[in-house]
Design goal:
By secondary structure, the protein is α/β, with parallel strands linked by helices. The protein folds into 2 domains: about 210 residues, Spore Coat Polysaccharide Biosynthesis Protein SpsA, Chain A; about 70 residues. The protein is built from 10 helices and 8 strands. It has an 8-stranded mixed β-sheet with strand order 7-5-6-4-1-2-3-8, with helices on both faces. Helix 2 links the parallel strand 2 and strand 3. The chain starts with a strand and ends in a 5-residue tail after the last strand.
Length: about 325
């Protein structure tokens, strides 16, 4: 009898005491019908201060297929995902958030596509029950990102999906710390399938994400995958230098013909404000790229593990 394939399901958690048990029950119900496979459930707690850790420990005592990776504090959502990827031992990995916005019923569909020969399976949501403003921001970002970056990410691509062992190995081999998972998943290539679904409202509790979180997330994508803004600064610099020389030439010509008819104070004030604003913007953009360089050169780990429950050997 051939050995069953092992599939790792990763569930990131942060203050999800009301959802963590329910998502496990839902996943267990679904995977129990997939008798051709074995499953492990990797719960990563990202510094929760409610009863999430307590609930993970209770579940792990009853089911040794549960692996609990408890981080020492909150390191952000990308670190949470990286902690999951580092502890996967299966032949394939499926990521499912704890909040029920992305339905666990997608698991069999992801596996089906994987068995058809796809290395990566990505969830594409056709509609979302998020508020209109958040939906608009998300669509605007991915629409712009798709045009300015050097990779192709569908506008409605979600973070949920499947990675086989080959693509997981490729993703984990990337040394960078300033990570944007959806971008890296597209960057590594490989044969990719897409599954459409409707995104739902979260289960219990309140999301820890806010507008500022989305902007930080967008920064990771933009400054990690495009140099367009640096190019704009260079081109803008050339244009401004050309216009400056042109202005100087015209000013000298008018001075010679009309004996300096242009009042200098307003001209100087406008020039200072304009060029000062351009310089501040340019320095800010360069500063963001320098921030990425600093993050990489510090070489700190993406996260620190406080405790691992039911640790498995790779």
């Amino acid at each position: 009898m051939p050995k069953k394939k092992l599939i790792s399901i990763g569930i990131p958690c942060f203050n999800e005491e009301k959802n963590v048990v329910q998502i496990y029950i839902a996943l267990k119900k679904i995977t129990s019908r997939l008798t051709r496979y074995n499953f492990e459930y990797i719960f990563v707690d990202n510094g929760s201060f409610d009863k999430t850790v307590e609930n993970i420990k209770k579940m792990a005592i009853k089911d040794h297929a549960i692996v609990g990776v408890l981080l020492s504090r909150n390191f952000g959502p990308e670190a949470s995902l990286q902690a999951i990827l580092d502890h996967v031992t299966g032949d394939a990995f499926i990521g499912i958030p704890c909040d029920f916005e992305d339905p666990p019923e997608l698991v069999p569909e992801f596996i089906k596509k994987w068995e058809q020969g796809f290395n990566i399976v990505v969830g594409i949501y056709t509609k979302s029950e998020d508020d209109a403003f958040t939906t608009l921001l998300r669509k605007a970002f991915y629409g712009v990102f798709k045009r300015i970056s050097n990779i192709d990410i569908p506008v409605a691509a979600s973070g949920v999906g499947l990675l086989d062992k080959k693509s997981l190995r490729a993703l984990n081999s990337l040394p960078e710390k300033f990570r944007f998972y959806r971008g890296l998943r597209a960057w590594i290539g490989f044969k990719t399938a897409y599954i459409k679904y409707a995104r739902k409202k979260r289960g219990e509790g309140k999301s820890s994400y806010n507008i500022l979180s989305y902007f930080h997330h967008a920064e990771r994508g933009i400054f990690g995958f495009t140099y367009l803004f640096l190019d704009i600064i260079v081109y803008l610099g050339f244009i401004l230098v050309f216009l400056s020389f042109l202005f100087i030439a015209i000013y000298i010509l008018f001075s010679l013909i009309y004996s300096n008819p242009v009042k200098g104070s307003v001209t100087i004030l406008v020039s200072i404000v304009f060029f000062g604003g351009i310089q501040l913007l340019a320095i800010s953009v360069i500063g963001k790229y320098v921030q990425v360089i600093v993050e990489e050169t510090k070489a700190r780990p993406a996260y620190i593990v406080n405790e691992i429950i039911n640790a498995k050997k790779k």
